[in-house]
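If you are new to this repository, start here. Below is one unmodified record pulled from the training split, so you can see the exact layout before writing a loader.
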Amino acid sequence: MADERIDQDAAGARGAGPQGGHSRPPVPPEAGGLARGDVGAPRRLWCATPRLLLMLLCALLLAAGGAWGYVRLHGGMSGALAPFLPAPDLVRVFGKRQLRVLVMGLDENWTQNDEAYTTDARTDTLIGVNIDLASKEISVLSIPRDLWVYIPKSGYGKINEAYEDGGPERSELTVEKNLGAPPFDYYAVLRLDATKNIINAIGGLDVNVEKDMNYDDSWGHLHIHLRKGLHHLNGDQVVGYIRFRHDPEGDVGRMRRQRQVVQILVKRLEDPSIMLHLPQLLGVVRDNIRTNIPFGKLYDLALGLRGVTPRQVHTSVLPVDVGWVDGESVLFAASDAPRVVHRYLVAGFGTQFDPSNVRVRVENGSGTPGAASAMADFLRERGFNVVGTGNAPAFNHATTTVQTTDPNVAGEIARSLPVKHPRIDAKPVNGVDVVVVVGRDYQI
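And here is the target side for that same chain:
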């Protein structure tokens, strides 16, 4: 599940601030500020897949919830009925409306015999999750592993080192002190091979492989050899499928395949027949997730979050700038980081419409050159996630049209468009949530 490494952490990067010989000391967290980069430093686009890790956690919660439901019901009712139990009142269960969890994905080290181990591991993935227990809206903030911070009791270093220094509690404290985040209620630590293990525990997955894939990386312990078509894949094969990016699509195709597999996995875990695999799933939960959430509450959380759709999961990445410490490139929280932290880890989204969670494709149906690109820029400026542009099948559209089966999204899009009376076409679309077909009523 982990992304391939781009670079390795340099040894000896840790220091004690200005006296440690670093080229630029961060602002101490005690001063109430975030660590900042050099003025004028270029903004770095940080690629991360927090949604995949979050959905894997939800899958493990479903496995734990189903297993615990079987234990509770065994002897009085069929365990197969556990997925159909009524959702609990999560606000009452946890005694609060918002629940904050720090989710960590562990890096793996390798012995000379090619055996994986996680002793003294660092966090390869670090995300803060804020769950509105009433509305079931989930805010997810991905924190780059190379963020330069002050680690309590250890000194300055990359934020992924905090786990190595003091476990999940030290990672929690580091995020709270440096980013101004509120205290986390719980943590969840996932081994990065959890995807493989949970798929093996349920006997594999039926996946429609979209293309032939052949790639070998002995250093990264990645070997992918798959043929196009519907196949029953084991855990290693599924992981290879979602990690493959050695084609013209690169990360775009990889993220699409990740979403595809997550949907298949969650659907499989919701199948009542999954109860046949309960012993294996309990083992996966025990061996691949370490959390301080009480198991009874874990069960309630799993039941309560059933039915959460991707549109209820709001994701963002902490804004960062590139900086340098002892000649090594690191990341510093950017000037707008406090606003993003507050939005995702403090305020949350409740039932508020979030345009960044709506995937839009814009098509030129007017024949005016550049119309689709101009409309795409307009929607991006208003926060919508425009994933592509192109030409409509015909250039005879007099009126701009919004195509989607979701009436709420259609209304929000229509109100945002720079035309007076766009037409709403309630029809299914492929690959996105909404297709906007630009008509001749749009003036560039």
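Two things worth knowing about this chain: Residues 355-438 form a domain with the Alpha-Beta Plaits fold (CATH 3.30.70.2390). The radius of gyration is 23 Å.
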